Amino acid sequence: MAWNEPGDNNNSQDPWGNGGNRRPNNNDGPPNLDEALRKMQEKINRFFGGSGGSSGGSTGGGFSGAIVGVVLLVIVGIYVVAGFYTVSAKEQAVVLRFGKFESIEGPGLHWRPLIIDEVKIVDVKSVRTYQVGSGELMLTQDESIVELPVTIQYRINNLQDYWLSISEPDITLQHSAESALRHALGSTNINDALSGGRQKMADEVSSRLQQYLEKYKTGLKVESVDIQEGKLPSGAAQEAFDEVIRAKEQFAQLQNEATQYENKVIPEARGQAKKIEAGAKGYQAQVVTAAQGEAVRFEKLLIEYERAPKVVRERLYIDAVQAVLANTPKVLMDVEQNNSLMYLPLDKMMQTSSKSLTITDSVNETKESSVSRSNTNRSRSEQAPSRQSRGDN
Question: How many CB atoms lie within 10 A of CB 154?
Fold first, then answer.
C-alpha cells in the first residue's frame, strides 16, 4: 500500500513524519523551497539596497539587481587575483606602464593592475652560451687560413638596457663576438693561433667584446671566453692555403736575396764613398798646403828680387826651362862651331828600337818554326824506307 493512499487512518508511513496530511505551513512539515528562495532574495536585495516586498514584480527586479551585483563582485575578484605574479630568486621583472618603463622588480610576490601595467619576467642569473667560428674560415696576421671555434659565456647584467635599449641583444652579441674574434685573429700569426697564443687572444676577445656590448647598450656581461683548438682548412680551401704558403716562401726567398745583395752593395758603396771623401780631403789639404807654400815662397822670393833683380830673374828663367824640358823626350845639344842646336828625337828613336826588337823576335820565331818543321819531315822520310824494306823482306 502506498504511503499516501486514502483510507489509511493516518497510519501510513509519511516520509515527512506528518502522516497523510501535508501541511506546508506546519513547523513539523517539510521545508518549502519557494519560501527559502524568497528569503535569500530578500537578503540579497537588502544587501544591495533593493526593496524587500513580496510582490512578484518587486521580487523579479531585486533578483536581477542581485545577479548584476554578484557578477560585478566576481569580475572584481578575478581582476584582483589575476594581478598577482611571482618573481623567482634568479629572475627580475621589468614593469611597463602604458608601454613606458616604470620599474624593475626583484624576487617575491607582486601585484600589478591588469591592462595598465605590462610585466616581463627574465632570467638574469643563468649563464648563457654562444659558440663562434664553428665552420667559418678566418685570416691570421700572416695571411693564413684557420678555423678557430670560440665559446662565449654571458649573462644579463642590466635588464632595462637588455629589454628596452636594443631590439635583439643576443643577435647583437653574436655579431660583436665574430667581429672581436676576427680582429684578434687578424693581429696573431698562425703558430700562436694554433698553440700558445690562444689565452692571450681569449683575453683580447673578452675585453673588446665587452666594449662593444657596452657601446651598444645591450645589458649583457661577458663571463668567460674559451678559444678551442684551431683547425687548418681542407679541400679547395687547403689548396688555396698551400698556394699562399708557396707564395710566402718565394717571397721570403726573394727578400733574403735582396737583403744579401743589399748587405754586399751598400758596404762597398759606403767604403767607396769614404775613400773618395778621404781622397778629396787629402787633395784639399795638398792643394791648400801647396798654395800656402807657394805664397810663402813668393814672399821670400820677392824679398830676394828686390835685393838682386837680375840674378833672381835669370835664376827663375833657368828653373822654368829646366822644368819644361824635364817633361819632354826631345834633347837639344849646343854646337860651338856654328852656334846651332842639334835636335835628337829620342822618342822616335825609342819607338823605332822597340819596333825593330819586335820584328827581330818574330823573325826568330819564324826561323825556329821552319827548322822544327824540316826536322819533322826528315824523320818521316827516314822512317818510310825502313818500312818499305821490311815489306820486301
Answer: 23
Q: What is the pTM of this model?
A: 0.45
CA 381, distance to chain mean position in Å, is 95
| C-alpha span between 27 and 30 (Å, rounded) | 8
Between strands 108-111 and 91-97, the pairing is unpaired
260 — pLDDT class (breaks 50, 70, 90):
very high
Q: Is the pLDDT of residue 284 over 90?
A: yes
Q: Which three cell numbers stand for residue 17?
A: 513524519
Examine the pLDDT at 342 and tell me if it is beyond 60.
Answer: no
Residue-wise pLDDT tens digits, 40-59:
667 666 665 554 444 444 44
What pLDDT, in 10s, does the model give residues 164-185? 888 888 889 888 988 888 888 8
